[in-house]
Amino acid sequence: MNSHCNGKVSDSKSAVVAHRKHETSRKESEDESRLPLLEAAYTSILRHLGEDTDREGLLRTPLRAAKAIQFFTKGYHETIDDILNNAIFDEDHEEMVIVKDIDVFSLCEHHLVPFFGKVHIGYIPNKKVVGLSKLARIAEIFSRRLQVQERLTKQIAMAICEALQPKGVAVVIEAAHMCMVMRGVQKMNSRTVTSTMLGIYLEDPKTREEFLTLAMRT
Ligand SMILES: Nc1nc2c(ncn2[C@@H]2O[C@H](COP(=O)(O)OP(=O)(O)OP(=O)(O)O)[C@@H](O)[C@H]2O)c(=O)[nH]1
Ligand SMILES: [Zn+2]
């Protein structure tokens, strides 16, 4: 790994490895076996809300909701290795690569309501580049979990650092949190911006500035 990126995330590498083990240990088949339990739990929630779960409109709602929450959290089952699929290529390119405006939908782990927005990812290769779609797939893996935005931002950056060993990685997320919009403080237009800068993006203000100028430009 490049010394810049490696140095900055050395503490975090083991966390990434732990995440992978965690992910691979959960089999997709577990989803099947958990579905009836989730369905029963949603039936219970509806009844506690005072609903009649036998009325026509709600008959299949617990099952639908169970499948939906499994989809919203499917990132727990996916690993970086699965999605990279050998799409890392040797390339003598050492200029900045940015994929911006990647839509993400996640669930706030405090209230279990959505937060969603855009992820901007930049990296400076170190003899290796990755298939562009894979950056969006990495964002997808970590967003389809119960999250806080800060952790989501860091996990995406660390995963790219780990996989590519680039000279640096920058990730910015701009998101709207429905827990601040639909309830609680009810601020319709508030947006949360988080960033993680690793390697050269952390060390060199000009590189960071170039990324921010290109990524945040509308
Ligand atoms: N740092 C951070 N906070 C989050 C995120 N998503 C939700 N929160 C916050 O988590 C906090 C939970 O605060 P609590 O006081 O325990 O919960 P609450 O009474 O529902 O808070 P209110 O939302 O203020 O009504 C709130 O301030 C949320 O805005 C996130 O991604 N990052
Ligand atoms: Zn929340």
Automatic annotation (TrEMBL):
Keywords: GTP-binding, Hydrolase, Nucleotide-binding, Tetrahydrobiopterin biosynthesis. Residues 39-214 form the GTP cyclohydrolase I domain. Its EC number is 3.5.4.16. One of its GO terms (molecular function) is GTP cyclohydrolase I activity. It is an enzyme of class 3 (hydrolase). InterPro entries: GTP-CH-I_C/QueF (IPR043133), GTP-CH-I_N (IPR043134), GTP_CycHdrlase_I (IPR001474), GTP_CycHdrlase_I_CS (IPR018234), GTP_CycHdrlase_I_dom (IPR020602). GO terms for biological process: tetrahydrobiopterin biosynthetic process; tetrahydrofolate biosynthetic process. PROSITE patterns: GTP_CYCLOHYDROL_1_1, GTP_CYCLOHYDROL_1_2. One of its GO terms (cellular component) is cytoplasm. Residues 1-33 are annotated as: Disordered. It catalyses: GTP + H2O = 7,8-dihydroneopterin 3'-triphosphate + formate + H(+). It comes from the Eukaryota. NCBIfam families: folE (TIGR00063), PRK09347.1-2 (NF006825), PRK09347.1-3 (NF006826). Belongs to the GTP cyclohydrolase I family. CDD domains: GTP_cyclohydro1. The keyword DNA-binding does not apply. This is GTP cyclohydrolase 1. Pathway: Cofactor biosynthesis; 7,8-dihydroneopterin triphosphate biosynthesis; 7,8-dihydroneopterin triphosphate from GTP: step 1/1. It comes from Oryzias sinensis.
